[in-house]
Specification:
Elements lengths: L17 H10 L13 E6 L6 E5 L4 E4 L2 E3 L6 H7 L9 E13 H8 L7 E5 L2 E8 L4 E9 L11 E3 L2 H7 L5 H8 L5 E7 L7 E2 L2 E3 L2 H4 L8 H15 L8 H33 L11 H16 L3 H14 L4
Parallel strand pairs: 4-12
Antiparallel strand pairs: 1-2, 2-3, 5-8, 5-10, 6-7, 7-8, 9-10, 11-12
Length: about 325
């Protein structure tokens, strides 16, 4: 036991599967809003004559809008379109780490190693770490096991491939008794290559902007990628409120303010997450080994940076910026 990191301000960790979380968000969309799922944008073009944005999808459909928010994930087509194909940060890059993932029945996990698995737990070792936390109202345990690739590139086209328990156990041979018992539960795990984005020079261009992973895909070591997308949305929704937008032209200034506020913080997350991944694998940049105290204090400092953000102040700053830009 290196240490316990306590929740702050009276909040407790609550794990949820992403599918259930997304279902909850979809349920909040007003009935008056038209939503179409399963669409994939392949081109976004601004019309110089009428100022409208034209979005073309892979099924051939084309729509016209006053503005476009590209939120199409780490493999974002919108990112490549907005930044241009020659921009080196337009595509995600391999972080040098991969992860095995499996969801198992909580009863099986408790039987294998005891009730401690009912809490969010991390086991760290040289060149890898094991993260587990309850989901599905405590009925299941989400297990993610991270491994440094030792400089080897990811050569497969797919970023998620089926693996085997045997491969997983080989990667973590020699680890302690409890971690190995947990790994034994992971039959046919998925193996995920971990990619992220180099810093983009901008998140906006005219009435076109990027949000979430399309703007700043990060490795999962800070546990904040989805949360930062929600921060993006909080700011953007406030900037696009009827009180701030009187014409389609105002949208570009809202997007410009959004970029100025969100880009530094979100790109800092990508850098911090890579560093935290090394720290959790007990790796120093100079080849040394992270001590237990360094790991505990480093994680606490990083989590404080993630969590201690005044969203109201962020929104007010964005509104002030959007009004300060000279109008054409």
């Amino acid at each position: 036991m290196i240490g316990e990191i306590e929740a702050k301000w009276g909040f407790r960790h609550c794990g949820a599967s992403r599918a259930h979380f997304l279902d909850g968000l979809v349920g909040l969309i007003p009935k008056t809003v038209k939503v179409y799922f399963g669409k994939k944008a392949v081109d976004v073009v601004a019309n110089d004559q009428d100022g409208k944005m034209r979005v073309r999808f892979d099924d051939g459909e084309e729509v016209i809008a006053d503005a476009v928010v590209g939120c199409d994930g780490i493999r974002s087509a919108c990112r490549r379109i907005l930044l241009g194909p020659d921009e080196k940060s337009a595509k995600a890059v391999y972080s040098g780490k991969y992860a095995y993932r499996k969801v198992v029945d909580m009863k099986d996990a408790v039987k294998a190693v005891g009730a401690e698995v009912e809490n969010r737990t991390i086991y760290s070792g040289r060149g890898g770490h094991l993260l587990m936390f309850p989901i599905r109202a405590g009925k299941a345990l989400n297990i993610v096991v991270f491994k440094d690739a030792d400089g080897e590139p990811w050569t497969q086209h797919q970023w998620v491939v089926r693996s085997s328990r045997a491969e997983l156990l080989r990667d973590f041979e020699g680890w302690g008794e409890k971690p190995m018992k947990i790994l034994e539960l992971m039959e046919n795990p998925d193996k995920w290559a971990l990619f992220d984005h180099l810093p983009a020079p901008t998140y906006s261009k005219g009435n076109f902007c990027l949000l979430g992973d399309a703007a700043h895909a990060t490795t999962p070591h800070s546990g904040a990628g989805a949360g930062f997308a929600i921060e993006d949305a909080h700011l953007l929704s406030g900037l696009l409120s009827p009180k701030n937008i009187n014409s389609a032209e105002d949208i570009r200034y809202a997007f410009r303010a959004y970029d100025e506020v969100r880009r530094p913080r979100s790109q800092e997350l990508v850098t911090r997450s890579r560093k935290q991944g090394m720290m959790l694998d007990l790796q120093q940049s100079d080849g040394g080994v992270v001590t237990g105290e360094e790991l505990k204090s480093g994680m606490e400092q990083n989590m404080d940076w993630v969590w201690e953000i005044d969203l109201s102040e962020m929104l007010e700053r964005g509104k002030g910026l959007s009004k300060s830009y000279p109008r054409s």
